[in-house]
Specification:
This protein is α/β, with parallel strands linked by helices and about 240 residues long. The chain is built from 11 helices and 9 strands. Helix 1 runs parallel beside helix 6. The chain is elongated. The structure holds S-adenosylmethionine. S-adenosylmethionine binds next to strand 5.
Length: about 240
């Protein structure tokens, strides 16, 4: 997968995207990520990319032309038009299900706004959809773009060791993940649940599923309403105390 990020702060994006799992996937050639400085595409001799809003008001607006020229330059490099996403608090909120769908795209172009936002006309001209990372407002689209790349990138084939790294995780199947433990077996007088030390695979799978159901009910009961549960799992929840 190739992701192009158009931003006024490419160093901020690079600093994060060269680290850890995403950084290793880039080194291995599994993910190709390019951060473009929108300022490099302005024709203004002072390298300005923003101006005051028509109609008055506070703040500055990112101008259409440098963004459009950046997008065109990326299109020339690619043999296809990328799917264009504007990170915006007005967009559809990112979920694990959407991330799975984006991870199947070949090319994504992410546009990061700043200041008061972006001239509407370039959004109309190049953007396919707007994506939000939550119902709150950040100063710029860089952190949302990094959240997006991290969430989507780790779902691409070959980035994690095995699919089960994410198929068993919270939100993949509509539930929260079971609790995790590691060495030592006793810490601060707290013991690891016995079943996890038993080596009995089927019992461990059952225990984890039950824990997943219970903690979803306790922490995020709203998710349970939509989760695809078997009838026997609904009965299990009905018969189990809420405190467990
Ligand atoms: N004036 C805009 C509004 O009220 O909708 C908000 C502009 S915000 C201060 C600047 C930029 O940050 C936006 O253009 C967008 O790219 C990014 N941004 C802020 N909050 C975001 C969120 N929740 N999700 C995705 N991007 C966000």
């Amino acid at each position: 997968m190739r992701i192009d990020i158009a931003t006024l702060f490419p160093d901020m994006c690079e600093a994060v995207l060269c680290e850890s799992i995403i950084g290793r996937a880039r080194e291995a050639g599994i993910l190709e990520i390019h951060c473009h400085n929108i300022r490099d595409y302005t024709l203004d001799k002072h390298r300005r990319v923003d101006d005051t809003p028509y109609g008055g008001g506070m703040g500055m607006v990112m101008q259409a032309d440098p963004i459009f020229r950046c997008f065109e330059a990326v299109c020339v490099q690619l043999s296809q038009r990328p799917h264009v996403i504007y990170l915006s608090p007005q967009g559809r909120v990112l979920t694990q299900q959407l991330a799975v769908a984006y991870s199947r795209q070949d090319c994504l172009f992410l546009l990061c706004g700043h200041y008061e936002g972006v001239d509407e006309r370039v959004l109309e001209e190049i953007v396919d959809e707007e994506v939000s990372i939550g119902d709150y407002v950040l100063t710029g689209g860089e952190l949302p773009a990094l959240v997006f790349v991290d969430t989507v990138g780790r779902l691409c084939e070959g980035v994690l060791a095995d699919e089960s790294c994410f198929t068993e995780e919270s939100h993949f199947n509509g539930l929260l993940e079971y609790p995790q433990y590691s060495r030592p077996a006793v810490w601060h007088e707290k013991e690891v649940p016995e079943v996890l030390l038993s080596g009995h695979h089927a019992n461990i799978v059952r225990w984890r599923r039950e824990q997943s159901l219970l903690r979803t009910r306790n922490k995020r009961p709203d998710l349970l309403e939509k989760a695809p549960l078997e009838e026997k799992e609904r009965v299990f929840l009905q018969n189990t105390d809420r405190e467990e």
